[in-house]
C-alpha cells in the first residue's frame, strides 16, 4: 500500500479507512493533504476490492479547515493560476460511497470536506462551522452551496455570516448529519455503516450516489428522468439478476460486483 505523509490508509475487509493525520495542525487541509486524500480515495473508487470508504480525523479535529498558514500570503494570481484547491472537485465527483466520521472540529474546509462525503456520522463532541468570515473571506470549497442545499438558507446564512459553530445535535436537527453517536464510537459506527454499504452491489450503490447527488444539481423532472435512466441501466448488470433471483428464492444475494 502507498505510504503517505499526511494521511493513514487502511483497509478492513471491503472498507477503506482514511485518517487525516496532521493532528498538531488540527488536520488543516494543506495542498499536500488534499492531493494525498484525493489520490487514495480515487484508487479505492476503481478498486473492485473496496466497496465504501470512511474518512476520519485524529486528535481534537476532523479538520479545522484549509491551511490558513499556507494560504495567508497568496495573491489573487497565485490562487487563480494554480487553480488553488481544484483537486476537491475530483473528490466531490467520486462515486464510491464515502462516509465522514466526524469527531471534534469540522470547520471551514473541514466542514466542506465532510459535506463532500455522501453521508456524515458525527460524534456527540462534533462542532461544525464555516468561520471563514472571521478571516476576511468566505467558504471556498463549496460550503456556501452545499451547506445551503443541506440545511436551507436560514441556517446557512447564520453559520456563514456569523461564523457560529453548531454542535452535533443542532447539525442533526438541521439535516447536516445522518447520525449522532457517542464520540468514542464514531469510527466504529462509520465502519459498520460502510460495511453494510460495501455488502451491496457496487454498481447499484454508485448509481444511487449519482442519483441522489443529481437532486442537488438538477430540477425535479430532469432528476427523475436521470434516475429512471440509471434504474434501466442496472438491468444490464448481473447483480440485478442475482438480487431479484435471491428475493424470489428467499435467500441472501451473492452480488458479483460487491
Ligand atoms: N490552518 C492552519 N493551522 C491551523 C488551522 C488551520 N485552519 N486550525 C488550527 N491550526 C493550528 C493552530 O495554528 C495551532 O498551531 P500552533 O500550535 O503551531 O500554534 C494548532 O493547529 C492548534 O490549534 P489551536 O491552538 O488554535 O487550538 P484551539 O483548541 O485553541 O482552537 C480552533 C481550535 C477553534 C479550531 C482554532 O484552531 C481555529 O479557530 N482554527 C481555525 C478555524 C478556521 O478558521 N477554519 C477555516 C479556515 S479557511 C478555510 O477553510 C477556507 C476553505 C476554502 C479554501 C478554498 C481555496 C480556493
From TrEMBL:
Coiled coil: none annotated. It holds the Pfam family ECH_1. GO terms for molecular function: enoyl-CoA hydratase activity. Its EC number is 4.2.1.17. It is an enzyme of class 4 (lyase). Keywords: Lyase. It catalyses: a (3S)-3-hydroxyacyl-CoA = a (2E)-enoyl-CoA + H2O; a 4-saturated-(3S)-3-hydroxyacyl-CoA = a (3E)-enoyl-CoA + H2O. InterPro entries: ClpP/crotonase-like_dom_sf, Enoyl-CoA_hyd/isom_CS, Enoyl-CoA_hydra/iso, Enoyl-CoA_hydra_C. NCBIfam families: PRK05862.1. Belongs to the enoyl-CoA hydratase/isomerase family. This is Enoyl-CoA hydratase. It comes from Arthrobacter sedimenti.
Amino acid at each position: 500500500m502507498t505510504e503517505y505523509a499526511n494521511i493513514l490508509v487502511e483497509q478492513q475487509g471491503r472498507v477503506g479507512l482514511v485518517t487525516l493525520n496532521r493532528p498538531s495542525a488540527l488536520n488543516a487541509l494543506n495542498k499536500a493533504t488534499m492531493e494525498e486524500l484525493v489520490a487514495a480515495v480515487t484508487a479505492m473508487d476503481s478498486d473492485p476490492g473496496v466497496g465504501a470508504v470512511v474518512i476520519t480525523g485524529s486528535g481534537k479535529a476532523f479538520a479545522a479547515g484549509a491551511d490558513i498558514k499556507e494560504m495567508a500570503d497568496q495573491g489573487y494570481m497565485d490562487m487563480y493560476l494554480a487553480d488553488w484547491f481544484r483537486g476537491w472537485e475530483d473528490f466531490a465527483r467520486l462515486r464510491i460511497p464515502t462516509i465522514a466520521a466526524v469527531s471534534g472540529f469540522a470547520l471551514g474546509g473541514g466542514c466542506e470536506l465532510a459535506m463532500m462525503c455522501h453521508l456524515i456520522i458525527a460524534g456527540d463532541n462534533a462542532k461544525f462551522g464555516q468561520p471563514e468570515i472571521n478571516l476576511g473571506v468566505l467558504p471556498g470549497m463549496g460550503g456556501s452551496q452545499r451547506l445551503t442545499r443541506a440545511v436551507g438558507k436560514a441556517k446557512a446564512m447564520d453559520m456563514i455570516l456569523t461564523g457560529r459553530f453548531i454542535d452535533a445535535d443542532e447539525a442533526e436537527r438541521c439535516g447536516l448529519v445522518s447520525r449522532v453517536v457517542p464520540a468514542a464510537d464514531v469510527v466504529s459506527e462509520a465502519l459498520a455503516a460502510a460495511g453494510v454499504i460495501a455488502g451491496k452491489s457496487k454498481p447499484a450503490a454508485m448509481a444511487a450516489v449519482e442519483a441522489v447527488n443529481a437532486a442537488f444539481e438538477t430540477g425535479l423532472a430532469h432528476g427523475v428522468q436521470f434516475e429512471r435512466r440509471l434504474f434501466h441501466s442496472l438491468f444490464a448488470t448481473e447483480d440485478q439478476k442475482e438480487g431479484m433471483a435471491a428475493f424470489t428464492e428467499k435467500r441472501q444475494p451473492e452480488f458479483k460486483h460487491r
